[in-house]
Amino acid sequence: MNKAKVLKLAKGFRGRAKNCIRIARERVEKALQYSYRDRRNKKRDMRSLWIQRINAGTRIHSVNYGNFMHGLMKENIQLNRKVLSELSMHEPHSFKALVDISRNAFPGNKNVVHAPRKVALPLSV
Amino acid sequence: MAILCAASSSSSAVFAPAKCNPSFSPLSSKRSIAGLSFAPSKPVATAVGKRGFAVRCQKDLSVVPLDQRWMFEESEVDGPDIWNKTWYPKARDHVNTEKPWYIVDATDKILGRLASTIAIYIRGKNLATYTPSVDMGAFVIVVNAEKVAVSGKKRTQKLYRRHSGRPGGMKIETFDQLQQRIPERIIEHAVRGMLPKGRLGRALFNHLKVYKGPEHPHEAQKPMELPIRDKRIMKER
C-alpha cells in the first residue's frame, strides 16, 4: 500500500530508483526533503532573479541597482522587485521613467575616482 | 491588447500605496501614455535579440473567444498573467538566428577586463530578460587576438598549465610562448574561466569566436561594435 504510493512519487527517477522499492524509498525520501527545503529556497531564488533583471535593466540607463533602489526608497515608491523586473522587461518606457525619477532623487556616486589613464578611450558607451 | 496593457498597468499601479502621491501621478500618466502609444502598433513579436528595449506586448490570446472560455481558469480569461508570474522565456525568445552579433578588436586591451565584458554579453547578463537557465546571450567575435595585452610582467611570468592525465604529464608555458603558438587560446581560456561551468556554460562558450588577424568569416551576420563601459580596459602606454 505504501509501496504503491512511494513508487508513484518515484516517477521519472533515474535507473532502479523508479522501479525497485528499496532504492525508490530512499530517493523519494530525499526528494521530499529537497522539495521541503526548496519551497523556502524558491522565494530566495526568485527575489535574486528579480534583482539581477532589474540590475540589467537599469544598467542600460547607466544606473546600477543599488543607486536605483536608493533613489526609489527616497521617493517612497514601494513597488516590489517582482513588479519592477516585469516592468523592465515588458514596459521599457515606463521603466525608464522610474529610472529617471530615481536618478533625480539620488544622483549616484559622484566621488568615484577613476585610475589615471594616458591613452584615449576608443569605444566606451 | 493596448487595453490589456493599460489594464495591467493600472493593476500594477495599485501596488504603490496612496502615500507616495508626489511620484504617483507622473508615473501613471507616463504608463498610460506608454499604453496608448502601443495601440497603433501590431503585436510585436518578441524583439529579444535587438539591443536595448525588448518590447513584448500581449499576443492575440488577450481576449479568449467565448466558446473556448471553458478551457481557461477564471484568472486566465483575459490572457496570461504577466504581472504575478515571473516571466520565463519561451523557445521563440531565444532562437539562435535572431541573436545579435558583436565584434571587438582585442588590440591593446587588457586581457581580463576584455574577457569579463565578453562573458557578460555572451551570458546575457546585460539584458533585462536575463534567465540563468536559458541561453539568452549574444554572439561575440574577437579579432586581432594576438595583440591582446597584459599589464606588469605577466607577459613573461603568467603561466598556462595543462595536464595530459598521465603521471608527469604537466605542460607549462608562459603567456608569451602561448601567444606565439596559438594566440586564440589565450582569450578562449580567459573567457571560459568566466562563463558558468556546466552544460549550459559549454554551450555558451561556443558563441565566442576568436580570430588571429583582422579578418573574420562572419560578415553575413552584420556584427556591431561591442559597447565596453570599462574605463581601464586600454593598455596604458
- Structural class of chain B comes to alpha/beta
Distance between the termini of chain A: 66 Å
- Give the amount of beta strand of chain B, in percent: 5-15%
**CA-based shape of chain B:** elongated
What is the beta-strand fraction of chain A? under 5%
Largest sheet of chain A: none
Low-pLDDT runs of chain B: 1-55
Characterize the largest beta sheet of chain B: strand count, sense, and whether it forms a barrel: 4 strands, parallel
In terms of quaternary structure, what is this?
heterodimer
Total strand count of chain B, please?
6
Q: Structural class, from helix and strand content of chain A?
A: mainly alpha
Spatial gap, N to C terminus of chain B: 56 Å
Flag low-confidence runs of chain A.
Answer: none
> H/E element string of chain A?
HHHHH
What percent of residues of chain B adopt helix (DSSP H or I)? 25-40%
Annotation field: number of helices of chain B: 7
Order of helices and strands of chain B: HHEHEHEEHHHEE
Radius of gyration of chain A: 24 Å
Number of strands of chain A: 0
Question: Could you describe the 3D structure shown?
Answer:
- The complex is a heterodimer of chains A (125) and B (237).
- Chain A is mainly alpha-helical and 125 residues long.
- Chain A contains five helices and no strands.
- The longest helix of chain A is centred in the first third of the chain and has 39 residues, at 21-59.
- Chain A is rod-shaped.
- Helices cover 65% and strands 0% of the residues of chain A.
- Chain B is an alpha/beta fold and 237 residues long.
- Chain B has helices at 2-13, 21-37, 111-123, 154-157, 175-181, 184-194, 199-205; strands at 101-105, 139-143, 159-163, 170-174, 208-210, 224-225.
- In chain B, the strands form two sheets. Chain B has a four-stranded parallel sheet with strand order 5-2-1-6, with helices on one face.
- The interface between A and B is large, with 42 and 49 residues.
